[in-house]
Amino acid sequence: MNYTVNLVWDDEAAVWIATSEDIPGLVLESGSFDALLERVRFAAPELIALNRSDAPATLTFLSRRSERILADG
Fold first, then answer.
1. What's the CA gap between 69 and 14, in Å, rounded?
2. Tens of pLDDT along 20-37?
3. How far is it, in rounded angstroms, from Cα 63 to Cα 27?
4. What is the rounded CA–CA span in Å between residue 12 and residue 15?
5. Distant-in-sequence, close-in-space partners of 40: CB < 8 Å, separation ≥ 6
6. What is the pLDDT of residue 73?
7. Could you read off the pLDDT of 26-69 as tens digits, one per residue?
8. Alpha carbon of 39 to those of 18, 44, 45, 60, 70: distances in Å?
9. In this structure, are strands 15-19 and 2-10 parallel, antiparallel, or unpaired?
């Protein structure tokens, strides 16, 4: 089964946040993108098992980061 994990940058808190509509209970954050991926890889199988699914899983990561910039002039 394929599970989608959304990774979004929160500029105010300066952290990446991971959530998933496919994996109930998955809400994690980290200041590092790579550290967040590792946390999700560790937590997702446990949460999927708690939701009574033992089928092989594939995680698809979708990331989004926006930043406001000021034009010179």
1. 16
2. 999 999 999 999 999 999
3. 14
4. 8
5. 5, 18, 26, 28, 59, 61
6. 59
7. 999 999 999 999 999 999 999 999 988 777 889 999 999 988 88
8. 9, 8, 11, 14, 34
9. antiparallel
Residue 67: per-residue pLDDT: 82
| Residues comprising the chain, all counted | 73
Rg of the chain over all Cα atoms, to the nearest angstrom: 15
What is the secondary structure of the chain as a DSSP string? -EEEEEEEEETTTTEEEEE-SSSTT-EEEESSHHHHHHHHHHHHHHHHHHTT--S--EEEEEEE---------
Phi, psi dihedral angles at 42 (to 5 degrees): -80, -45
